[in-house]
Design brief:
Elements (H helix, E strand, L loop, with lengths): L11 H17 L9 E4 L6 H9 L4 E5 L3 H9 L6 E4 L3 H7 L2 E4 L2 E4 L3 E6 L5 H13 L5 E7 L2 H4 L5 H19 L15 H15 L6 E12 L3 E11 L3 H8 L15 E2 L7 H10 L13 H10 L11
Amino acid sequence: MSGSNLPYHLRVKKDIERRLFIEQLRLVAKVYDLEAYAYVGMAGAFSEDFKLMKDRFNFKDFFSYEIDEKAYKRQKFNLPFSETCYENKSIGQFILDYPELEIDDKVVTVGKSVLWLDYIGFEEKLLQEFSDAIAKLEIGSVIKITLNAHAAKLVDGGGIEKQKERVEKVKNLLGKNYFFDDIFEHQEMTNNKFPLAIYKLLKRISVSALRGTNYLFLPLSSYIYQDGMKMITFTGIKIEESEKENFLSKTGLDIWEYGLNHTDEPINIEVPFLSLKEKYTLDACFPGSPGSELQYFEEEEIKSYERFHRFYPTFVKMF
């Protein structure tokens, strides 16, 4: 479920999205003490997000869930720091057991958490886990979900008939609880529009999960990116409804340019792949325009890179 053996540490757009997550957590930390939180995710073989979280926030607890046996063994071998607890279980088990986890024959009580449901699929079970997490986790918890939004993976090919086939495929994947005719109309089943349909579904789920309570799942961000398959992320925080305006004002998330309270739609992370020399040359010219030596880049490529350049990773060969 977690894409356990994929080289996410070398995927530029995924890495930008991960660093944007760090940035929004830094803003959340203006209100909540994240060092008292648990960080719960699906670390993959290399635990890249865990390394970043340890470096930036030093959470109280770190829990990783992984059902793939080989990836689980690689995680333990590549252990980045001793506080990480790797569990050879589905992350759904965390949601089921919360707030009392059974770890090494001991019961560990978990409170506020940052939970990243870093899936690579798109099906009913994953959406149900997302809904259950919103309902169960303590106030102040941040919950993020990543889903596959690649329409061609459902049914390959173009045209209206293929779009209608995709609707039927989605209906089978989501079942009666999460398939909605008004969201998954056939014209929405294109590679560009399908992620937006999933975004609407996640917003609806996040509202219904807390219906009848005084709590709110406040959307913070949503991103679409493609390092192979097209993916969508959706992140929010569980707070009391009466605290919404105060929280947004204190954190600055109401005006954060990469967030949903600044623009009510997912942000597409689209950047060119750059050599180190190209990156440093572009960085040095912002906020101005690049010189003639880089005119082989299209204007839109330059604008897109400028928007995300603070989060653009640098990969270098060590040996």
